[in-house]
Amino acid sequence: MELLLQAFSWLLTPESWTQQGGALQRLFEHLGVTIGVVALSAGIALPLGVMIGHTRRWTTAVALLAGAARAIPTLGLLTLLGLALGIGLGAPVLALLVLAAPPLLAGAYAGVQAVDPEAVDGARSVGMSEAEIIRSVELPLALPVIVGGIRSATLQVVATATLAAYTSDTGLGRYIFSGLKSRDYPELIAGSLLVIALALLLDGSFALLMKSRSRAPRSDRQTTTIPLERNPS
Amino acid sequence: MIEFDRVTKRYADGSPAVADVSFTVPSHKTVVLVGSSGSGKTTLLRMVNRMVDPTSGRVLIDDVDVTTMDPVRLRRSIGYVLQSGGLLPHRTVVENIAIVPRLNGATRPDARERALTMLDTVGLDRDLASRFPAQLSGGQQQRVGVARALASDPNILLMDEPFGAVDPIVRRSLQHELRELQRTLGKTILFVTHDIDEALALADEIIIVAAHGAIAQRGTPTEILTRPANAFVAEFVGVDRPERRLRLADAAGVEVVTDASGRPIGTLER
Ligand SMILES: Nc1ncnc2c1ncn2[C@@H]1O[C@H](COP(=O)(O)OP(=O)(O)OP(=O)(O)O)[C@@H](O)[C@H]1O
Ligand SMILES: [Mg+2]
């Protein structure tokens, strides 16, 4: 309790935020790493997932691969990459990319694959090209599931981006690592609270986004969800 | 003219859905395929717009092998009513009907106007225009499917049990509408149904299909009814059913047509 109060008092001290390398800067670094990693990973995983869902090929292989990738412990991977790449942001970004890819891939291919085949058949038989089918049939119908995948990837990355401080002085994880080292528990707790707040904020934004985007009445066909769980790193 | 030249289709699992089938659909005529479930009617229909490519044999439209044509352009030039509807669940009724005019380059307002006109043609209220397919009855969905196929005014229409889910009164008026359309605009129509009465009402020629697309008989409705080629056709057409065996009776000076069991069907005009 004492520690928690001290953590809050740390959070309420303006200098904690404004000083060089303070909470405000770290918060933005953390957010920046999260958004950057998810965007980069999505740039590869989403088109790949959509193509796999559209052609319905290699789905089993990709499901297995994604499952295997989920099981990789991020901390272990980061240590290996850190040894190979040295100090800096490179290793954590790579490790986080591997973390983000499976839910993105799964969301994209599961979402597209779950689109009613009769709607796709109808679209094709009136003369839509494959690109038109993807753009104006499969993507809109799969969007809730795809966004669900992005949401799940974002949450995992924002929580795990604390590990960036393991090899570089970036993000909110710094408070946790340095707090551990110097036994400054209030600072450690304050850092954790900030990570939690950021995660809740991002999740809330996704919830709002998904709510505002439902135009057509959701028919009972489209109820695919993708698993959110993964192994703790 | 659509020509099926010894076409065979084998799906992945082996046994042929359609085996060595040949027939023609003359230009500006309505040919109706009738046959039991699984006899390959849908498979034959989908070979025309290349939704299915034959394993062997050829399908020709005006003497051009369809496999030499670009499938997307081919499909845009042919109206196709799918057995299952195949509407886009996230598009409204009017958007669904406007798809093909839009694909063919019509502006949005033009395509919309065209789509609304098509709603009138298939007897649907314009109030339904902004509904989604899931908010329509099965019969209404089918009529939207028909409207979509007609919207770009194609010369060839492929219709796969298009009226199966609509009630008998609407069905009759749609059959009449189709007949009119065919007569006035000279469409070439390949039509699939289970309902021999529908075939008799619509067809210039009927093709009775047995297993694997084998043609049991082809002929005009009158020929099929009066000279069934074999027991299978006779059974299918129901030539022995009481309602096909009409009689003439006299009811107080009016000539009444009755079925075999004496139930009145109508009066005779001379
Ligand atoms: N995509 C497919 N893959 C494998 N087999 C198929 C496929 N489509 C159809 N078949 C098989 O081919 C045969 C003919 O099917 P088709 O759909 O052409 O019949 P149909 O005459 O239209 O039947 P119905 O009157 O029930 O619609 C059936 O045995 C069916 O199981
Ligand atoms: Mg069929």
Automatic annotation (TrEMBL), chain A:
Domain ABC transmembrane type-1: start-end pairs: 31-206
Highest taxon above the source species: Bacteria
SUPFAM superfamilies: MetI-like
Keywords: Membrane, Transmembrane, Transmembrane helix, Transport
Transmembrane regions: 34-54, 75-101, 188-209
Pfam family, any one: BPD_transp_1
Bilayer topology: Multi-pass membrane protein
Endpoints of the signal sequence: none
Entry keyword annotation includes Protease: no
GO cellular component, one term: plasma membrane
InterPro entries (alphabetical): ABC_transp_perm/SBD, MetI-like, MetI-like_sf
Major subcellular location class: membrane
Compartments reported by the entry: Cell membrane; Membrane
One GO term (biological process): transmembrane transport
Record has Ribonucleoprotein as a keyword: no
Annotated family: Belongs to the binding-protein-dependent transport system permease family.
Entries under PANTHER family matching the protein: GLYCINE BETAINE/L-PROLINE TRANSPORT SYSTEM PERMEASE PROTEIN PROW, POSSIBLE OSMOPROTECTANT (GLYCINE BETAINE_CARNITINE_CHOLINE_L-PROLINE) TRANSPORT INTEGRAL MEMBRANE PROTEIN ABC TRANSPORTER PROZ
Protein name listed in UniProt: ABC transporter permease subunit
From TrEMBL, chain B:
Superkingdom of the source species: Bacteria
Alphabetic keyword roster: ATP-binding, Nucleotide-binding, Transport
Coiled-coil segments on the chain, per record: none
EC number of the protein: 7.6.2.9
EC category: translocase
PROSITE patterns reported for this sequence: ABC_TRANSPORTER_1 (PS00211), ABC_TRANSPORTER_2 (PS50893)
Pfam families in UniProt: ABC_tran (PF00005)
GO molecular function: ABC-type quaternary ammonium compound transporting activity; ATP binding; ATP hydrolysis activity
Domain ABC transporter: 2-237
Family: Belongs to the ABC transporter superfamily.
Protein name: ABC-type quaternary amine transporter
Organism: Labedella populi
